Amino acid sequence: MGHVRPFILSKDAKSQADFYAKTLGGVISSVLTHGQTGETRHELQDKVMHLCLEMEDGSSIFMADSVEPFTQGSGHLLNISYKAESQAREAFDRLASSGQVKVPFAQKPFGLFYGEITDPYGVTWMITA
């Protein structure tokens, strides 16, 4: 099976990626705007065509500014799993500071630590350890 990499459309990919870098850990490694390609309409010049957010564990999230109307969140969930409960709890707490907790972070009967949060951009995160 190939490597799965989420690609998130956003109203403001740079701000959303900055938020994830600060709350979940990681760094924005590249940003390409439509204007940098030289083949776009004027109103799209500053829109992000492709952004790569590299997470601390070596995985990455791709993002772009939506050029068509869309609804944030749109029914998908992202799961991020940590080796240590303390790392997962820290990530959960940072997301919770500006998001909406759906399931409090705690050890669950199925053996994992688990919590669920919807961030300010409408994306729901499942945090596990």
TrEMBL record:
Pfam families, sorted: Glyoxalase (PF00903)
Sequence ranges assigned to domain Glyoxalase/fosfomycin resistance/dioxygenase in this UniProt record: 3-127
Domain of life: Bacteria
Protein name: VOC family protein
Native organism taxonomy: Bacteria, Bacillati, Bacillota, Bacilli, Bacillales
